[in-house]
């Protein structure tokens, strides 16, 4: 409720009193002035309501703008947190991939050395196997079948 509500209500009541007094006394001039005051008072009350509504919209708009700014800041902070999490996860995966590749490389080197040692220990068998494989490949790749 603002000043226009109060003043408009008082003016409206004063107009009613003038209209009633003019009617009781039988004088049209106070009745007309009272009717004008009633209308002016009602208009001032309506203006006061409109002003209150506009002030409410402004206050709500400020509140909504503040809330939107707050939510945007929260979203920005969350995005930074997610970015940091993703970046750290990427680093972790990169390190894990490096560790695994080194593990598999060492394992392959061990197996390769073991296979070379076994082939060196069994030279005749290895030569026979390599010869058989080469002969089989030669047969498979022959043009005139």
UniProtKB/TrEMBL annotation:
Gene3D superfamilies: YjbJ. It holds the Pfam family CsbD. InterPro entries: CsbD (IPR008462), UPF0337_stress_rsp (IPR050423), YjbJ_sf (IPR036629). It comes from the Bacteria. The chain crosses the membrane at residues 124-141. Residues 4-56 form the CsbD-like domain. Keywords: Membrane, Transmembrane, Transmembrane helix. Belongs to the UPF0337 (CsbD) family. This is CsbD-like domain-containing protein.
């Amino acid at each position: 409720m603002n000043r226009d509500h109060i003043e408009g209500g008082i003016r409206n009541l004063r107009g009613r009193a003038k209209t009633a007094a003019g009617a009781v006394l039988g004088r049209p001039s106070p009745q007309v002035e009272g009717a004008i005051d009633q209308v002016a008072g009602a208009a001032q009350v309506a203006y006061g309501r409109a002003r209150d509504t506009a002030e409410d919209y402004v206050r709500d708009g400020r509140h909504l703008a503040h809330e939107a700014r707050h939510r945007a800041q929260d979203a920005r902070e969350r995005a930074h947190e997610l970015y940091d999490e993703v970046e750290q996860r990427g680093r972790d995966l990169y390190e894990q991939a490096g560790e695994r590749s080194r593990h598999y490389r060492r394992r392959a080197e061990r197996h390769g050395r073991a296979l070379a040692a076994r082939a060196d220990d069994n030279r005749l068998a290895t030569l026979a196997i390599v010869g058989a494989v080469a002969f089989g490949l030669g047969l498979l790749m022959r043009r005139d079948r």
